[in-house]
Amino acid sequence: MNILKFFTAGSVDDGKSTLIGRLLYDTGSILADQLEALQQSNRKNDDGTIDLAILTDGLRAEREQGITIDVAYKYFQTEKRKFIIADTPGHIQYTRNMVTGASTANLAIILVDARNGVVEQTIRHSYLVSLLGVSHVVICINKMDMEGYSEEVFNTITENYKKMAAKLNLQDITFIPVSALKGDNIVHTSEHMPWYKGTSLLDFLETVEVTVNQDLHYARMPVQWVIRPQTEALHDYRGYAGRILSGAFKVNDKVTVLPSGSSSVIDRIEIFEQTPEEATAGQSVTLHLKDNIDISRGDVLVNSSYLPQRSQLIEADLCWMDNKPMDDSITYFLQHNSKLSKCKIREILHKVNINTLEKEETHEFRLNDIGRVVIKTADELAFDLYTENKANGSAILIDGRTNLTVGALMFRAIVE
Amino acid sequence: MSKYNLDYLDELEAEAIHILREVAGQFEKPALLFSGGKDSITLVRLAEKAFRPGKFPFPLVHIDTGHNFQETITYRDEMVERLGEKLIVGYVQESIDSGKVIEQKGKNASRNSLQTITLLDTIAQHGFDACIGGARRDEEKARAKERIFSVRDEFGQWDPKRQRPELWNIYNGRIHKGENVRVFPISNWTELDVWNYIRREKMSLPSIYFAHHRDCITRNGQLMAASPFLNMDEADIVTHRKVRFRTVGDMSCTAAVESEADQIDDIIDEISASKISERGARLDDKVSEAAMEDRKKGGYF
């Protein structure tokens, strides 16, 4: 069994929380004591049924205001798969929270209200999904019950969406007509829409492919920790511990250490007490090399025949996440996996108007702004472009004054 | 081209190990909070996988309410002996004796909430800048909002509105002096994942997790172990039951469930079929709708 991570996007009243609540409720993921708490709650639908949306609003302030404040994570499981849902709010801080949710997701569900069709929000959410490179997109056309379960409405919205999406780089788009409130096509196929020949949302989530499909040569492992017991029995033990970001490492593979550029050969791979011949992306391992070279946390081990980019000047897409606007006169910290480097924003190339998708000239970056910048780092980074290797093509910005995470970076090009 | 597909337990394990190694790499003085429950036992197993054959780069820290199940303490001491790692114990009794906290009175008295003060004192005394805990987001609705690296201010407080966004698998552990970070490596695990992992790894557990005979009383509809730590009176009728515990906390606030499950396979079957959540057996969560949120804001784990 494997795990599918997804998130939902849509504006405040599109029914995101209801959709998640419906998925949990109809798959029997809500237990008796939680259900009892729901039934005692004052929030009910107009017809007196339980308001499933409150399942996802975990904080007091959220229940008071009836809105979602921050990303919450929900878990459920069927016989076929485990699911992790990043429940991201649809209101003002949508960009910051959506980028957060999308950064680890395999799939995005974008809700469209059947009564309103494709609106500005839909464009915005689709743009973010395309920017973050989420592999699969499901467009749930919700509230079909309020449009008489009309096939024509569904077809019109689908066509409009496809026209809009042609401008974006979306990989795999699926359209499903649903009513989260009534439960149509969420877990069970709807009897109200016999014209729809596709699967229910859950069927789709259970069967969509999530395996990492990547070139073996992209072997990258940032060193997180050097294991050196320095005991008599293990005098010469020196293991480089980390999680493989991408690709695969095999015993006897030639590897290069960056930034030093020294190279060696993999002598042994350890995963606790096991010593496999090969380890692949996602695994936390300890690597041993044939030669004693100087390697410490922040260095990255890569396959010598396929080296990453190396530069101190990088063009990147930036999403600004802090209330305090970006200040290009100060030095920030850039964290790229286990490597921390000082950096400056050298130049703002443009900002994207995420309602119209047009590029605009700007001198400032405020909360939720997205655009392209040139970053100058104090140390040389060993990275890949985000489009080729998300894990080694992304970084965060930290404000050293507040220690807050203020920006998300996706590396797009080398500046020559 | 090649395809990789890790099994879900392998993926959760690899993620948790990655988080533990980030703690080791980013902090000066981390600690692993150990309660003797299945979640912190899982953390210890993950720490072995992250750092062996080296030593753990942190001590284990137990906040002892003095109202523990003896089986848990025995298990703790045997485990520390086997691991050869350092254990630091913070005693709630000492906080009571020094007048920093006042013991609750009445029938439902519990030392559970007093732990927070002892924990914060222990953190301050040893200067810990990161505390690794076994909380999971599936446990409770306020926990669903937790980040994996969760910054607490100098008063140990959690502010849900000032959380750092957590992007990709990059964790920002930078803090100001006096602050500390609570780190939750098994955030993405569910109760069932923990049990499946315990089975797969053939880990031992304190015996109270398995069905056994015990004197119990019924309190607020829940089955409690009869013990000197409960304020009992004539109205409390002691009955002998076959029970087990789903979570391990203080004896005064952790309820038992009637069960025949004395093997791990039976426990997994029982949990899979259960209609009550794990936290349904914790009286401390039932005080109000936001009980957990309020305690977390105050510095509780």
UniProtKB/TrEMBL annotation, chain A:
GO terms (BP aspect): sulfur compound metabolic process
Keywords of this entry: ATP-binding, GTP-binding, Nucleotide-binding, Nucleotidyltransferase, Transferase
UniProt-listed CDD domains: CysN_ATPS, CysN_NodQ_II, CysN_NoDQ_III
Superkingdom of origin organism: Bacteria
One Pfam family from the record: GTP-eEF1A_C
GO molecular function, one term: ATP binding
Occurrences of domain Tr-type G (ranges): 1-215
EC number: 2.7.7.4
Alphabetized NCBIfam families for the sequence: CysN, small_GTP
Protein name: sulfate adenylyltransferase
Protein species of origin: Pedobacter cryoconitis
Classification of source organism: Bacteria, Pseudomonadati, Bacteroidota, Sphingobacteriia, Sphingobacteriales
TrEMBL record, chain B:
This protein's UniProt keywords: ATP-binding, Nucleotide-binding, Nucleotidyltransferase, Transferase
InterPro entries documented for this protein: PAPS_reduct_dom, Rossmann-like_a/b/a_fold, SO4_adenylTrfase_ssu, Sulfate_adenylyltrnsfr_sub2
Xref: Pfam families: PAPS_reduct (PF01507)
Gene3D superfamilies: HUPs
EC number: 2.7.7.4
Source organism superkingdom: Bacteria
GO biological process: sulfate assimilation
Keyword check for Kinase: no
Gene Ontology molecular-function annotations: ATP binding; sulfate adenylyltransferase (ATP) activity
Keyword Nucleotidyltransferase: yes
Domain named Phosphoadenosine phosphosulphate reductase: residues: 30-255
Family classification: Belongs to the PAPS reductase family. CysD subfamily.
Name the UniProt record assigns to this protein: Sulfate adenylyltransferase subunit 2
Species of provenance: Pedobacter cryoconitis
